[in-house]
Amino acid sequence: MELTLTAARAIATIGWWGAVALVLGPAGAQAGPRDAPIVLAQSVTSITTRAPNLLRQDTQYLDVAKRLRSQCENAAWTLWKSNSYDRWRNRKSSMMTMHYMSSSYPKLPEPPQDWPEPARSELGAAVNKANDLVKEAGTTFKSLADYINAKDYEDDKFKKGDELNARLLEIGETCHRLFSEMTGLYTTIAERLIEARKSGAAHPETVGTMVSDWKVARGLSQELALHEKADPAKVDALVKEISTLVDERKANFAPLKDNPDSALKGFYERTYNDQVAVKMRRFLRDAKSPKGFKDGAEDRPRSTFWSIRGEIDVAMPDAILRYIQSAK
Question: How far apart are CA 195 and CA 218, in angstroms?
């Protein structure tokens, strides 16, 4: 049984964010630290009266949640859904290649005290759990890499390797459930923050239009959340509706046409159009058969439906919050 693998580990602690990079794959694979520093502070003033510099604290904590949500998705995909250990272990494949990068925080901040409960506490607990899981995933993955590279499986007939991989599979599956939970909590918090802030925004009427258009897209997200049980005809109708809407905005929405803020442009052109409307039209065109639709709808990491839901439920409210924060 041929096996050529390497494990690389790099650790960097920058501000709140500690990056641990692990790669288990062909010899020579490299990994290294990434991500910029984050500095967070607490405030107990009212959301509606916060100064602009304090408003950024909300989006900074949401950035922490987004990063760990993404880490959960990566763990779910690599350690659970595409895990190739068993195929190699049972001689169904002569080569095993798994690439995994784990990043976690050495210390987590608390979510702002004035966020609405119970979503505040629930998101904080989910963030803490995600951080703990990806830390454990990195350590366990490194142990498996060392075990395989040392050929220790020749001594114990794969006993320890099987145990380590079983834990990785468990972590990955748990991460997928947590990824789903964090998506819902992120949307709930972001919606409440947008509602509280929009009256004090520089251009509240523009924010109102963005929120209204986001709600249209959320109708699609709610149908996609049914995954394999989603109604193809309803999905098609919703995609046509949002495609028409975004085309109308690009053609006639003055704030978008006249030197738009980057967050506004990102909301409509990059997210609403490119990542949602265009990708869903392509999916529906390619997924003509029930099997094709089911494959994209599957409740698994990196499925088409989950990708689109992430754009609607996370990227869109994030762009609205950043527009409120940055627009003059």
Answer: 16
